[in-house]
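Quick one, tokens below. Sequence please?
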């Protein structure tokens, strides 16, 4: 499906001298009268590609769709000179970029239409933080396989590890003890964990492979915000997608750790401030475990929660059947009174 419009939005970042731009795509007509749906991708640093199936919300539900690459990845401005700067790469920066996009596209006009917001994975993290600030124009919120806090996320990861086969647990424990994430045993263990909990499709769809390649090509955002030395699960997904055969050097421990500028982050104290109707969903085998989803359900005033059986972190990417189920769930929620 081809976008109706695409372009670049100037984004002024006062703390750096580099001129920055945000790349975006629009599917549908923003003047249709229906609230547009703005999507926040994950990674951080993955780019919009893996969310392209949601463009079908326009022909199926008459909802215009806005996708964009957050600064530092995809077709937006890259800032490799900021690698490792945890004071620069914060959720506040990503929220400022979102506000800039909303204003540029005039999605907060006082005409009653407003906009919907969907945040997937890390996109849901700062999406919830944004929604808790009572932003003007926000109609409904979807938090897809998101993370309520650093602490609950790590607890979820540990529970997933505890469910892994003994040899997988031992390989991961050994890699942590020795720091050797390049061993055959560690690579095999990470591939198994990724294949079960990140994306269960084999091979993954090309849209997801494109986003994984974004993470691989420029690791500035991911390594700074999430985990300083990480590319094992990215490589395993890319290899399974047949985009590449291998990369010569690999670094752990990827999503099994949480050591970047998001360490200690939490949205939980402010979740009660979210006034928009909210849909939360995750997969049965999701890296966004139930323990990091429960706070959304406990604290957001108007919320419903769905867990999709047999799915992992990239629910909509795992099969056409699951894609249709996710699109129907999200589309029905956004169009119901």
């Amino acid at each position: 499906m081809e976008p109706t419009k695409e372009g670049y939005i100037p984004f002024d970042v006062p703390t750096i001298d580099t001129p920055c731009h945000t790349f975006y795509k629009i599917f549908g007509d923003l003047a249709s009268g229906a609230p547009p749906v703005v999507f926040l991708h994950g990674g951080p640093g993955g780019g919009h590609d893996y969310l392209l199936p949601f463009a079908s919300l326009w022909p199926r539900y008459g909802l215009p769709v806005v996708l964009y690459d957050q600064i530092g990845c995809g077709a937006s401005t890259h800032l490799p000179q900021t690698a490792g700067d945890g004071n620069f790469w914060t959720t506040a920066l990503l929220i400022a970029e979102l506000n800039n996009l909303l204003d540029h596209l005039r999605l907060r006009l006082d005409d009653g239409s407003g906009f919907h917001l969907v945040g997937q994975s890390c996109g849901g993290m700062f999406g919830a933080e944004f929604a808790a600030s009572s932003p003007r124009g926000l109609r409904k919120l979807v938090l897809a396989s998101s993370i309520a806090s650093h602490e609950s996320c790590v607890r979820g990861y540990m529970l997933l590890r505890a469910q892994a086969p003994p040899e997988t647990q031992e390989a991961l424990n050994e890699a942590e003890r020795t720091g050797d994430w390049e061993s055959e045993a560690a690579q095999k263990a990470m591939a198994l964990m990724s294949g079960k909990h990140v994306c269960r499709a084999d091979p993954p769809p090309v849209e997801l492979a494109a986003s994984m390649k974004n993470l691989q090509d420029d690791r500035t955002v991911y390594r700074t915000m999430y985990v300083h030395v990480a590319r094992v699960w990215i490589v395993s997904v890319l290899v399974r997608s047949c985009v590449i055969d291998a990369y010569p050097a690999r670094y752990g421990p990827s999503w099994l750790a949480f050591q970047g500028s998001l360490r200690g982050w939490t949205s939980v104290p402010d979740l009660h401030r979210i006034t928009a109707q909210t849909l939360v969903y995750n997969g049965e085998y999701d890296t966004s475990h139930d323990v990091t989803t429960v706070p959304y359900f406990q604290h957001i005033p108007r919320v419903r929660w769905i867990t999709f059986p047999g799915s992992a972190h990239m629910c909509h990417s795992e099969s056409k059947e699951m894609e249709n189920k996710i699109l129907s769930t999200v589309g029905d929620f956004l169009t119901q009174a």
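The chain has eleven helices and eight strands. The radius of gyration is 19 Å.
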